[in-house]
Write a structure and sequence with these properties.
- By secondary structure, this protein is of the alpha+beta class.
- The protein folds into two domains: 76 residues, no CATH class; 124 residues, no CATH class.
- The protein is 26% helix and 23% strand.
- Strands 4-3-2-1-5 form a five-stranded antiparallel sheet.
- Helix 3 packs antiparallel against helix 5.
- The chain is globular and about 55 Å long.
- 28% of the residues are buried.
């Protein structure tokens, strides 16, 4: 599984390994929910490695709910202590979304069907859906991952832009390429043809040429 884990993947951690790690972090001892996190089957998310982190452990993250300070906790655990967890799609997670979001979600699901792509959430909507805790607020954005072919269809980027312009919330997220690399959809949409965009993977951040990533728009 170590070779197949990618940034944004969800994993559950064995309770014993979680307790051992938590014992190394006395600064977290007073935070609600953390002691029972693994026992409750709540996940962690695979994040990008930061400089100085080796490959002997999987880099992970856990964002706390706003009521607990909205702190982002970074850690790394052995692959043997982890089990992959399936992430919910947007249609499944939509039941957790505010009612005012539903027309936008319907439009995004229709856009995905048009391109044979199933978007999935990350950010606040994802964490509320997989933990049962309250992450969404009146100022939350809708963050989505779009598993895409390469180059990314111009019609998908244009469709996202059209939905974003009329959405009552921010519409954020990434195009996920076949190798697991993520490119921010708006940066890819707006970049000049001869330019480059930041591409994020488990190993780090690189610059990728727009011409290879984005389908040319027809006149």
């Amino acid at each position: 599984m170590a070779q197949t884990l990618r940034r944004h993947d969800l994993v559950r951690v064995e309770p014993v390994a979680w307790a051992v790690w938590l014992g190394t972090r006395p600064d977290l001892s007073g935070i609600r929910h953390l002691h029972s996190w693994a026992d409750m089957g709540r996940p962690l998310i695979v994040r990008r490695r930061v400089p100085g982190e080796g490959e002997e452990a999987v880099p992970l993250g856990l964002p706390l709910p706003p009521a607990d300070g909205k702190r982002r906790i970074g850690l790394a655990l052995p692959i043997g202590a982890l089990t992959r967890m399936s992430a919910p799609g947007l249609a499944e997670a939509a039941r957790q979304a505010p009612a005012v979001w539903h027309p936008v979600i319907d439009a995004l699901l229709a856009l995905g069907r048009d391109h044979a792509i199933a978007p999935r959430p990350f950010g606040s909507l994802l964490w509320q859906a997989v933990t049962g805790l309250t992450y969404l607020s009146a100022t939350s954005d809708l963050d989505l991952l779009w598993p895409c072919p390469e180059p990314v269809p111009a019609g998908l980027l244009a469709g996202l832009d059209a939905v974003a312009r009329r959405a009552p919330m921010g519409l954020d997220g990434e195009m996920l390429l076949a190798d697991g690399t993520g490119v921010h959809w708006r940066e890819l949409r707006d970049a000049p043809e001869g330019g480059s965009v930041l591409a994020k993977s488990l190993k780090g951040v690189t610059l990728r040429p727009v011409a290879a990533l984005r389908e040319r728009e027809t006149a």
